[in-house]
Amino acid sequence: MMNKSINTKIEVRKEILEIIHKKYDNICVGDYNSEELEVIQKELKEIAEMVRDKDKYIELMKEHKNKKDKNINKYFCR
């Protein structure tokens, strides 16, 4: 049985993924050259994967923050 907090997180992520999916589907090919289009599509896919796997990224960030790993902190901590 999932609690309200987990359900809320799932709903938020679902909404964000739907926005990304709509953006991906609504890209007007004529507005970009093939290189730009490839970059945009790749970015949207990677962002969607990051949203989907957010918990893993947060755990990785916490783990490395505890180790004072400067290389990972510069990407995750601002």
Care to describe what's here?
The protein is an all-alpha fold. Helices cover 78% and strands 0% of the residues. It contains four helices and no strands. The longest helix is centred in the N-terminal third of the chain and has 22 residues.
Give structural attributes.
78 residues, mainly alpha, 4 helices, flat
Counted by DSSP, the helix tally is 4
Question: Gap between N and C termini, in Å?
Answer: 35 Å
What is the averaged pLDDT score?
Answer: 85
Order of helices and strands: HHHH
Roughly how many Å is the radius of gyration?
16 Å
Strand content: under 5%
Runs with pLDDT <50, length 5+? none
> Tell me about the biggest sheet?
none
Helix fraction, binned, reads over 70%
Domain tally: 1
Structural class by sheet pairing and helices: mainly alpha
Total strands: 0
The rough form would be described as: flat
